[in-house]
Prior knowledge:
Helix content is 0%, strand content 71%. By secondary structure, it is an all-beta fold. Strands 1-8-7-6-5 form a 5-stranded antiparallel β-sheet, with no helix packed on it. The protein has a 3-stranded antiparallel β-sheet with strand order 2-3-4, with no helix packed on it. The radius of gyration is 13 Å and the shape is globular.
Amino acid sequence: MQEKLFEKISVIFSFNFEKNIAIPYKIRWQLRDYFIKKLVYHHKVREGRELFHIFHVTDGNLDFKLRFNTENLSWILEEISDGLPD
Protein backbone atom coordinates (compact mmCIF):
# COMPACT_ATOMS: atom_id res chain seq x y z
CA MET A 1 0.00 0.00 0.00
CA GLN A 2 1.30 3.44 -0.93
CA GLU A 3 -0.23 6.54 0.62
CA LYS A 4 0.38 10.22 -0.23
CA LEU A 5 0.36 12.34 2.94
CA PHE A 6 2.12 15.74 2.78
CA GLU A 7 2.38 16.03 6.59
CA LYS A 8 4.95 17.99 8.60
CA ILE A 9 7.40 15.80 10.51
CA SER A 10 10.40 16.10 12.80
CA VAL A 11 13.72 14.75 11.53
CA ILE A 12 17.12 14.06 13.05
CA PHE A 13 19.62 14.37 10.22
CA SER A 14 23.20 13.12 10.05
CA PHE A 15 26.12 14.06 7.82
CA ASN A 16 29.30 11.96 7.64
CA PHE A 17 32.07 14.06 6.09
CA GLU A 18 34.42 11.05 5.76
CA LYS A 19 31.94 9.19 3.54
CA ASN A 20 30.29 12.36 2.22
CA ILE A 21 26.87 10.94 3.09
CA ALA A 22 23.89 12.96 4.32
CA ILE A 23 20.97 10.91 5.61
CA PRO A 24 17.93 11.31 7.83
CA TYR A 25 18.67 9.26 10.96
CA LYS A 26 15.27 9.32 12.66
CA ILE A 27 11.85 10.71 11.82
CA ARG A 28 8.92 11.39 14.13
CA TRP A 29 5.50 11.07 12.56
CA GLN A 30 2.21 10.93 14.46
CA LEU A 31 4.08 10.75 17.81
CA ARG A 32 6.02 7.64 16.70
CA ASP A 33 9.74 7.39 16.00
CA TYR A 34 11.11 5.60 12.93
CA PHE A 35 14.85 4.86 12.75
CA ILE A 36 16.13 5.01 9.19
CA LYS A 37 18.23 2.05 8.12
CA LYS A 38 18.95 2.89 4.51
CA LEU A 39 18.98 5.81 2.11
CA VAL A 40 17.51 4.38 -1.10
CA TYR A 41 17.62 7.47 -3.30
CA HIS A 42 18.21 11.21 -3.04
CA HIS A 43 17.59 13.94 -5.60
CA LYS A 44 16.95 17.69 -5.76
CA VAL A 45 13.95 19.53 -7.20
CA ARG A 46 13.64 23.25 -7.84
CA GLU A 47 10.20 24.87 -7.77
CA GLY A 48 10.56 28.53 -8.63
CA ARG A 49 13.30 29.89 -6.38
CA GLU A 50 12.89 27.16 -3.76
CA LEU A 51 15.19 24.15 -3.69
CA PHE A 52 13.97 20.87 -2.20
CA HIS A 53 15.95 17.75 -1.34
CA ILE A 54 13.91 14.56 -1.76
CA PHE A 55 14.98 11.53 0.26
CA HIS A 56 13.63 8.02 -0.31
CA VAL A 57 14.47 6.06 2.85
CA THR A 58 13.43 2.89 4.66
CA ASP A 59 13.33 1.69 8.23
CA GLY A 60 13.29 -1.92 7.04
CA ASN A 61 9.49 -2.23 7.19
CA LEU A 62 8.18 1.00 5.72
CA ASP A 63 9.44 3.20 2.90
CA PHE A 64 9.26 6.99 3.25
CA LYS A 65 9.53 9.83 0.77
CA LEU A 66 10.75 12.94 2.61
CA ARG A 67 10.97 16.50 1.30
CA PHE A 68 13.40 18.99 2.84
CA ASN A 69 12.76 22.66 2.06
CA THR A 70 16.08 24.55 1.99
CA GLU A 71 14.31 27.92 2.16
CA ASN A 72 12.62 27.43 5.55
CA LEU A 73 14.41 24.25 6.73
CA SER A 74 11.20 22.26 7.13
CA TRP A 75 10.46 18.60 6.47
CA ILE A 76 7.37 17.05 4.86
CA LEU A 77 6.47 13.36 4.72
CA GLU A 78 5.14 13.08 1.17
CA GLU A 79 4.54 9.35 0.89
CA ILE A 80 4.69 6.18 2.93
CA SER A 81 4.62 2.63 1.63
CA ASP A 82 4.70 -0.85 3.14
CA GLY A 83 5.79 -2.36 -0.19
CA LEU A 84 2.59 -4.35 -0.63
CA PRO A 85 0.24 -3.87 -3.59
CA ASP A 86 -2.74 -1.57 -3.03
